[in-house]
Design brief:
The longest helix is centred in the last third of the chain and has 38 residues. Helices cover 74% and strands 0% of the residues. It is mostly helical. The chain is built from nine helices and no strands. Helix 6 packs antiparallel against helix 7. The chain folds into two domains: 41 residues, no CATH class; 124 residues, no CATH class.
């Protein structure tokens, strides 16, 4: 929210009129931003932070993510999604391994090692992660857009967040594959037939 100092003091009557929280300085075109920052930092007291607009925005985002229920809710949602996703991928992979246990046993009897099966199940897990990631990303982009329109808050899905979620999905699927493949490692080809 942007307001004049008079309206701000009217809304926040507990504040003193001489205190300043945030000030904005517009530089002339072509000014050297880093040089101006360094000069201002050297002249102002240590309790005054001098930063660019981008630094200020990053600081605000970090504050809201770390100090408010919104940040905790998001972090908790990510943790729960990771656990639920890992369980679902594990169930899919475990069912697939169990359904094809005779085929895996035949390959094991032919001399294939556990490492081969681990690679096969990991590949299947990564395919599941990729196939789930694509529609999940499209749905998330839609939800971000709807939230942006409904609340007028600047909600955007940036490339860094998309890459982070993909890496997290790959880790989750790999963890599930490592747990699911344990049944293959203990399987004896003679017992299956």
């Amino acid at each position: 929210m942007v307001t004049s100092d008079i309206n701000f003091l009217r809304m926040a009557d507990f504040r003193q009129s001489g205190l300043i929280d945030v000030g904005a300085i517009k530089l002339k075109p072509g000014a050297e931003v880093q040089a101006v920052l360094a000069e201002m930092r050297s002249r102002l007291p240590n309790d005054v932070k001098v930063m660019t607009k981008d630094d200020y925005a990053k600081g605000e985002v970090a504050f809201w993510n770390a100090s408010t229920p919104v940040g905790y809710t998001f972090d908790l949602g990510v943790a729960i999604a990771f656990i639920v996703g890992a369980v679902i991928v594990y169930q899919i992979l475990y069912s697939d391994v169990t359904d094809h246990l005779p085929e895996y046993a035949t390959l094991k009897a032919m001399g294939f090692r556990d490492r081969y099966f681990l690679i096969v199940v990991f590949q299947e897990a990564l395919i599941l992660a990729a196939l789930g990631f694509i529609p999940g990303t499209l749905v998330a982009l839609g939800i971000y857009r709807i939230t942006n329109i409904a609340t007028m808050l600047p909600m955007m899905m940036d490339l860094g967040r998309i890459v982070f979620v993909f890496i997290l999905s790959a880790i989750m699927s790999s963890f599930s594959a490592a747990v699911a493949v344990r049944k293959l490692q203990t399987a004896d080809p003679a017992d299956i037939f």
